[in-house]
Automatic annotation (TrEMBL):
Cross-referenced InterPro entries: MetI-like, MetI-like_sf
Originating organism: Hamadaea flava
Protein name per its UniProtKB record: Carbohydrate ABC transporter permease
Principal location listed in the UniProt entry: membrane
Keywords: Cell membrane, Membrane, Transmembrane, Transmembrane helix, Transport
Transmembrane segments: 12-40, 84-107, 114-135, 147-164, 190-212, 246-270
Family stated for the protein in its record: Belongs to the binding-protein-dependent transport system permease family.
Intracellular or extracellular location(s): Cell membrane
Length: 285
């Protein structure tokens, strides 16, 4: 074995540092730096935020931005609205994705392949395209400034159906067949066999939908005009409109941090399922 072929030789260490660690560090900095700037700026005084000098740490710390943001915008009401929309919307989307994926994999019916292609086609359509038709439809049914009006248009999830279908295809068919031979129907096979074995993928779909529903901005902005029915992202717009001077940037950033904290906690709680869920079934078509 030559000196350069050893795993811990200087040449291999330099190659690993340049090819592996350096891109990872750059990616982390690109993601983390804006978030760090947001959090630090939420504690800065107006003079420190709008100055052209580079001020990294607040001096002095100005936590009054948080109390001022809470005074201007009714965060408890907005938090309740976002929680209802997220829990109900994401819960129904996950259930629909589980049922649809199960039918596409384990139920034999004519045209199953074309249904799956139609689900894939929905992934190619940007959601902004359907805003106007959805607004005409929902407002015509009296859904403006209502919870169901916010939730209804986003209930179908092509991504969740696709991911769960791919995951269900990797489940051991002999286990499902044995349950069928023992007399288990579709309902029992779904909840007692398929769902427990595909739990990481279902958790991933749930997390993606929770983050999407919590951060959704465009559709709630269009369908809601009553401040009492606004969600948190739309409420930030209300804060920005109330404090439209550059000196209020610290208050706006404090409000943004308050909006981000709940979804960061949920992400930290479920993050260990993400890689497992996304890779489960990714190699089977």
């Amino acid at each position: 074995m030559t000196a350069d072929s050893r795993p811990l030789s200087r040449r291999n260490l330099v190659a690993a540092l340049v090819a592996d660690y350096l891109p990872i560090m750059l990616a982390i900095l690109i993601v983390v730096l804006p978030l760090a700037y947001l959090i630090l700026s939420s504690f800065k005084s107006p003079a420190d935020v709008i100055t052209q000098k580079l001020i990294v740490l607040p001096d002095p710390w100005h936590p009054a931005n948080y109390s001022e943001a809470a005074r201007i915008v009714p965060f408890p009401r907005l938090f309740l609205n976002s929680t209802i929309v997220t829990v109900v919307g994401a819960g129904i989307k996950v259930l629909l994705a589980v049922f649809t994926a199960y039918a596409l994999v384990f139920v034999r019916f004519p045209g199953r392949k074309y249904v799956f292609w139609a689900v894939l086609a929905t992934l190619m359509v940007p959601p902004q395209v359907s805003v106007v038709p959805n607004f005409v439809f929902v407002s015509g049914m009296g859904g403006q400034d209502t919870y169901w009006g916010i939730i209804l248009p986003g209930l179908a999830t092509g991504f969740g159906t696709f991911l769960l279908r791919q995951s269900f295809l990797t489940l051991p068919a002999e286990v499902i067949d044995a349950a069928q031979v023992d007399g288990a129907g579709h309902w029992r096979r779904l909840w007692h066999m398929v769902v427990p074995m595909a739990a990481p993928s279902i958790a991933t779909v749930a997390l993606v939908n929770i983050v999407f529903e919590w951060n959704d901005y465009l559709w709630p902005l269009v369908i809601v005009s009553d401040p009492q029915m606004m969600t948190l992202p739309v409420g930030l717009t209300l804060l920005q409109n109330s404090e439209n001077s550059a000196a209020s940037y610290g208050i706006v950033m404090a409000g943004t941090v308050m909006v981000l904290l709940p979804v960061l906690v949920v992400f930290a709680a479920l993050q260990r399922h993400i890689v497992t869920g996304l890779t489960q079934g990714s190699v089977k078509g």
